[in-house]
């Protein structure tokens, strides 16, 4: 062992130090007793007359120890090594850094130091090390030792008291390295917060305060450099570590708050925010100066950041000096006297001659009021009368909005302090005046923003803690009801309904009367959709749920088949009612046993009423029913899904109408038979909606039978609505099917039958039906990223060569990259992999481009051109950008095709013009001609507008490329100025102005 260790030591001193340390550590790890033998083996090097050799030998100990496990050495070994390293600190200046580094490793790896050793380490460093003479990396070793000792031997260090404090101050003094400063700030925070500073308080503050505020710019070439934010946070914690710093910090903060540098003022305020809760009573002596300075900052309004910091700071200051408990509302205590003095200094700004400054003053007092319940009780009586006066008397709507905002911010504080009786009483004293103002603004103004603020204010004032009398809440409820039956603006309506909901929630006794008023409104000519929307919003408990649910069901039963629009509103309302109360188990149970059954009965019974003349009405009705069952299954528990699935499958497979409550003779239903009347087959829409929203894992029984039946319907049923529903149902089942062999078991037989149906010898109608099913299965497979995707998509691309099906395949490919959140989305428990659209494009774009080139001579290149346009129209530009050089010519050709994807193609072209200039510029002449033609001749208004937007986007291209076209474009755009549609004319003016001013901005 001695021989081998000697070889490794020689290797270390032969400059291969890293490998030697690893080799020796690996050997020592087997037996800790050998570590002292290793030091003995180093004796000749440790006692060498050469300073460099002694230094390297000393550091070798630390290098090896750093590679050994934590707590590897025993307590006795630790003390021996530590004492030896301490002796080396008394060596020459060139050896000290190596000893410090090894000592830093030792204190970090050996957590249990013998008694007395931590103190000896600190005192030796204080005595022997002149830290300022060392390099920044060596100084870091010193600080790391202190940090390690405070972490593992904190009690021993704390017992040193002032000796450690002054010693650390001397070692830290004049430190400039940011990494070292971060360690120093951590140590200083610990010492200041956990140890009595005594006579060294001022010295500790001086060594920290000299860095305030932090002025540091990280090096851009050092990605691991300490950030300014880290240093600022570290210093801020130090200054907030003890109240003893207050007498030194506060004058410093006041000085910086009056600095010409905005950043210094902001940092002083933010640091005071952190210090205020600690300084508390020490703030009183500086209160007048602080509030005066902060008031000036707020009213100067130099920047939003400074105003925000000043408001937070003044709140923190008053919060710190507020009593812990709300005492008598006297103006004689320090807090009240200071607020009154601040008010007297600021009252001149409340006259309203300068609205902005006036609002700033009010916002300042709102911040003061937010400091504590006591502060709120003092501030509100002082400023509220003036604020109410401005809100009611200001002639300009813009001024009213500003004052109403300040009023709302002040009154909103009641939510923060509503547990204090004195605070509540302050608002109650002004309750009538506030309500009168809000009601006046709500009823006498047409400004939506003012109405919104009025509703928010009244909602606050009608909370049970403030509104003792139920009649006041009733008056407000009546006002809201009237508004809810007439307001159609989305924002205002949302606010009205939210307030009404909260009012009923806080005062449930109002609920029955409100519901009664709304039900009566249905017969008074009010808009049914608004009434039902409001009815749903006021449901907050089971009793109201029952009343509203029964009312909606009754109204639904009264609807005639020709009044399908009324039926749709009732079904939508029932779905919203379920979503609102879905967390209440009793309401869900009631809904399943009454509402759902009645809707099923209604759907089945209506099969006797639909006629060929009412096919479209039936489609609308069944679509809404599908949405209802999708919403229902989306929120049901697994047991409820199983129960409802069994009920639906019995109805569809066994024609069992008794299980949905239809008794007596009823014509036999066979919804899954392709030969059944379309009135019967359309019932599968209910099943489709339930499968789309629900958990497929709970729909086990008869799932394969349903899948097979849907496939047959998709191919053989003559009703197009039924076929579309069957295709979606197939796709959803395939997308949601559990991972494993079941997917292939479902899919493989279908693919073979679809290939046969797609063969050229079959009738075109059959081929189109099979193609539609294939497209839906491909979409489902792409969404979940299944292995069958390549088979499905490659077959589709092969069909582009088909003269009959090629055009339909080309347009149908758009479906695969379109968003279909109503069918496939995580919210509906579908399997949707991220970036599936981008993956589909990347894997297949080459096939499309090659197909286009290959078919130039056959005349079928248009199929591929349409396919490229269909796929690219729904993808983000970032995905297409690498391929734009090849795609831009295709897109230009796509502009000549008048198909459903033309609008999307124009949108993509516009993005390409703005973000892929180099790819578009070579084709600028052809593109301009195409866009001018579309802008003037196309029959669709949307296409004309998009074409004009593209032309306007072209002005961002290099001027020297498009300036030759300026005269032509300006002249041609004049024709669009006479377009029959106002929106087209508006866009034409914008585009023409951009071309007329071409190049002027650059000059």
From TrEMBL:
Signal peptide: none annotated. Residues 39-299 form the MMS19 N-terminal domain. The keyword S-adenosyl-L-methionine does not apply. Residues 532-955 form the MMS19 C-terminal domain. It comes from the Eukaryota. Its main location: cytoplasm. InterPro entries: ARM-like, ARM-type_fold, MMS19, MMS19_C, MMS19_N. GO terms for cellular component: cytosolic [4Fe-4S] assembly targeting complex; nucleus; spindle. It is found in: Cytoplasm, Cytoskeleton, Spindle; Nucleus. One of its GO terms (biological process) is protein maturation. Key component of the cytosolic iron-sulfur protein assembly (CIA) complex, a multiprotein complex that mediates the incorporation of iron-sulfur cluster into apoproteins specifically involved in DNA metabolism and genomic integrity. In the CIA complex, MMS19 acts as an adapter between early-acting CIA components and a subset of cellular target iron-sulfur proteins. Belongs to the MET18/MMS19 family. This is MMS19 nucleotide excision repair protein. It comes from Biomphalaria glabrata (Bloodfluke planorb).
